[in-house]
Amino acid sequence: MLRLWRWYQNCLAIHPVKTQVISSGLIWGFGDIAAQTITHSTAKKHRHLQEEDKELKINWKRVATTSLFGFGFVGPVGHYCGCRYEGLDRYIRLRLCLQPNSFRFVATKVAIDGFIFGPLDLLVFFTYMGFSAGKSFPQVKENVKRDFVPALILEGGVWPIVQVANFRYIPVRYQLLYVNVFCLLDSCFLSWIEQQEDAPWKQWLNSLLPSKEKRGQGG
């Protein structure tokens, strides 16, 4: 394990972009396999499968599609996120004059990261998965509306905690690596969210937001 870690660090130092791209693609591919396994197990437990579908069959086309998201978006963005973390760190220290590792410093960094990059990542993922499945623009739009809010609410309860520990205790040069460890769980989670389609719990979360119809009736 130590040799593997050193090899990864060496690759990251020599070929940072290529290493981030390849590792991100693999991480998101494994995450989708895990999501398919969880979805199948849940359906089997609740007897939602036909007899011929009880055996798990991995959709490798979907795995490849999800991996491409890691290769094409998460990897390149992830590499430049390293620069982003350092740049954000400098901006908060020098422009906002906040003391590193102070409560206000960490809270500001978490807020900026969460409000800007969290929603953007979700929007790109669900849009990409829709178009890659051959859906039309109206269908993709509806799917994004269906999946975006539940994912944002659920991730909103986890990622801020992850990032508080990241920005408070991890040296800035290692913060991206720390985040990538949690990307395996995140890729599994987002793939699972997307596969849930019109699950009742999604409808309930979306119902918490005021709709146009409700605003019209109220106004």
Plain-language structure description:
The chain has 219 residues and is mainly alpha-helical. It has a domain at 7-34 and 60-184. 80% of the residues lie in helices and 0% in strands. The chain is built from 9 helices and no strands. Helix 2 packs parallel to helix 7 (175-195) and helix 5 packs across helix 8 (200-207). The termini are far apart. The relative contact order is 0.12.
What's the arrangement of secondary structure elements?
Layout: H1 2-14, H2 16-45, H3 60-94, H4 103-132, H5 137-156, H6 159-169, H7 175-195, H8 200-207, H9 212-218
Helix pairs in contact: 1-2, 2-3, 2-7, 3-4, 3-7, 4-5, 4-6, 5-8, 6-7
Radius of gyration based on Cα positions: 20 Å
Assembly status: single chain
Characterize the overall form.
globular
Indicate the structural class: mainly alpha
Largest pleated sheet: none
Mean pLDDT metric: 80
Q: What percent of the residues sit in helical stretches (DSSP H or I)?
A: over 70%
Number of helices: 9
Topology as a string of helices (H) and strands (E): HHHHHHHHH
Beta-strand residue percentage: under 5%
Number of beta strands: 0
Low-confidence stretches: 212-219
Distance between the termini: 62 Å
